[in-house]
From TrEMBL:
InterPro entries, per the entry: Cyt_P450, Cyt_P450_CS, Cyt_P450_E_grp-I, Cyt_P450_sf, Cytochrome_P450_fung
Family classification: Belongs to the cytochrome P450 family.
Record organism: Boletus reticuloceps
Record keywords, A-Z: Heme, Iron, Membrane, Metal-binding, Monooxygenase, Oxidoreductase, Transmembrane, Transmembrane helix
Protein name: Cytochrome P450
Membrane topology value: Single-pass membrane protein
This protein's pathway: Secondary metabolite biosynthesis
Gene Ontology cellular component list: membrane
PROSITE patterns linked to this entry: CYTOCHROME_P450
Location in the cell: Membrane
Needed cofactors: heme
């Protein structure tokens, strides 16, 4: 189209001008505030572009992890107009994100968050009163001692998942997805989704599909540089972003409202409801007066929809990674099965009460989290004020990442880090060490508030799979292993795509025995 070339040139010119002006402004400001302290070491930036051409844009954590050898545990990287500080060790992450959490608990501005309906996601919220209220609501339901009340439901869902896998093993990732969605929706809305084509789950997935790609840096930078893209009338060419954002916002509003209305109606019609985050808080909210009540309701709606978004993809990612590790390492699932058979008995299924007696199963869970952390760079924090750390200057507004990937690949803590070795979490007597890889859940005041629920869901799902299933390579017509290459994709969480494998019930496990266990 005729207008494309001049518009593209204009766009490039405007982008360069924007980045140039902003870079010069930052350089002047930094020089004044630095008080002679250097920035942390890092790659030499190109004028205006910074190091954007040297970073692996799909998986930036890989570039940052490679650069650690040269620049150390704290690095500064300029990416276009952004100051990025990457923390490569747990001790530096703890020094800044935990011990100086007053400074580092905010989130950076991402231009596409609000226009695409993510303003209802409190994981993106600025550090402030609204975020604190959301965290408080979340904490009451998902703190360590409260999530125990979800154990019976998690156990039931894990066993149902095995039945689904036995019915249709080739579609295993969709059964993991059903498990993750069911556990989350039951604990938040007392809503039990159907295994396939559930209407409520579709509403949420539609929003994820429409909005998550917009969070990628390419789109966010585009909108930051050209905010007018959201103001072009929809009938004009070039209005694609405005239309895309409008659709995402509409889906976002539906995602927040539909499950909330579902549980609210059930409470109003005095149905029996199980304890869940929303039902518990609706009851509490009724005691509040007008203005507090509407603020509380807004926070409750946002907290509940954020919980779903935070939970499902991370859980699916880890269960698929676990399956991959089992298929590649039969020695490991056989050892876990021997432990389960000895402690629980081959004719019973594991329960939460068995956990402390099954250290090897726990070591497998820890190693799954460490080996392929689903959020390898964590969520970005930002510096609310400029800071000096060990004589290094951190500019106000810098985006700060705890590089979980680098920490999980630290060869001094995890020798042969690329290998899947649960034994690294056991001492010589076969008991669990005190190395818990909780860094995969992030840092400081923004640490994942769903980590206790996630830990329980993952443990019961993995231990029930180990007790009931064997894992192997899929075979071709000649009985040879089908070779495959695993691809990880980035979305809400980094997750492996499904790969061919053969998941079969152990010889003594039958559908009837599982169905019977479910009726107990
Ligand atoms: C399954 C494994 C999970 C992993 C690996 C994981 C990881 C993370 C990470 C790295 C962060 C960012 C922390 C930071 O900013 O430093 C985070 C935040 C968050 N996670 Fe999780 N998560 C998991 C499961 C869950 C579950 C089950 C829920 C809900 C029940 C949840 C809800 C959240 C929320 C609401 C936040 C935002 C917190 C805030 O900004 O204050 N996550 N998670």
């Amino acid at each position: 189209m005729g207008w494309t070339i001049p518009t593209t040139q204009l766009a490039a010119l405007a982008a360069v001008t924007f980045v140039s002006v902003d870079t010069i402004r930052r350089l002047i400001r930094n020089r004044v505030e630095r008080k002679g302290c250097p920035l942390p070491p890092g790659p030499t930036p190109l004028p205006f572009l910074g190091s954007v051409l040297s970073v692996n844009t799909e998986e930036p954590f890989r570039s940052y992890t490679e650069w650690r050898a040269k620049y150390g545990d704290i690095m500064y990287i300029q990416l276009l107009d952004m100051d990025v500080v990457v923390l490569n060790s747990p001790s530096v992450a703890s020094d800044l994100l935990e011990k100086r959490s007053q400074t580092y608990s905010d989130r950076p501005f991402i231009a596409t968050v609000n226009p695409y309906g993510h303003d209802s996601n409190f994981a993106f919220a600025n550090y402030g009163e609204h975020w604190k209220l959301c965290r408080r609501i979340f904490h009451q339901t998902f703190r360590a001692d409260a999530v125990v009340s979800f154990h019976p439901m998690q156990l039931r869902k894990a066993r149902q998942m095995i039945l689904n896998v036995m019915d249709d093993p080739s579609d295993y990732t969709s059964h993991y997805s059903t498990f993750a969605a069911a556990v989350t929706m039951c604990s938040i809305y007392d809503y039990d989704p159907s295994p396939r084509n559930d209407q409520m789950v579709s509403i949420i997935n539609n929003f994820i599909e429409a909005s998550v790609p917009a969070l990628m840096p390419e789109k966010a930078v585009l909108l930051k540089v050209f905010p007018f893209l959201l103001h072009i009338p929809e009938w004009l060419p070039g209005s694609w972003m405005k239309r895309e954002a409008r659709v995402a916002r509409e889906l976002g509003a539906k995602m927040v409202e539909a499950p909330y209305q579902y549980i609210q109606k059930r409470i109003q019609s005095k149905e029996d409801v199980n304890p869940s985050m929303v039902s518990d808080h609706i009851t509490h909210m009724e005691k509040l007066d007008g203005s507090h009540r509407s603020e509380y309701e807004k926070a409750l709606k946002q907290t509940s929809s954020t919980a779903f978004l935070g939970s499902v993809e991370t859980t699916i990612s880890l269960l698929t990674t676990f399956t991959l590790a089992m298929v590649k390492n039969p020695r490991i699932w056989k050892r876990a099965q021997a432990e389960i058979d000895t402690i629980v008995g081959a004719d019973s299924l594991p329960e939460f009460g068995d956990r402390s007696s099954l250290p090897y199963a726990d070591a497998i869970l820890r190693e799954t989290l460490r080996w392929q952390p689903p959020v390898p760079l964590g969520a970005p924090h930002t510096a609310r004020t400029s800071d000096i750390y060990n004589g290094l200057y951190i500019p106000k507004g810098a985006t700060v990442f705890g590089n979980i990937w680098a920490m999980s690949r630290d060869e001094t803590r995890y020798p042969n880090a690329e290998q899947f070795l649960p034994e690294r979490f056991l001492d010589s007597g076969g008991m669990l060490t005190d190395d818990i890889p909780d860094l995969v859940f992030g840092f400081g005041r923004r640490v994942c508030p769903g980590r206790h629920a996630a830990d329980a869901s993952l443990w019961i799902a993995m231990v029930t799979m180990l007790a009931t299933l064997d894992f192997g390579h899929a075979k071709d017509v000649d009985g040879k292993d089908i070779a495959f290459e695993v691809k990880y994709m980035n979305g809400m969480a980094r997750h492996p795509l499904a790969f061919p494998c053969c998941i079969t019930p152990r010889p003594h496990i039958s559908k009837a025995s599982l169905e019977q266990a479910l009726t107990k």
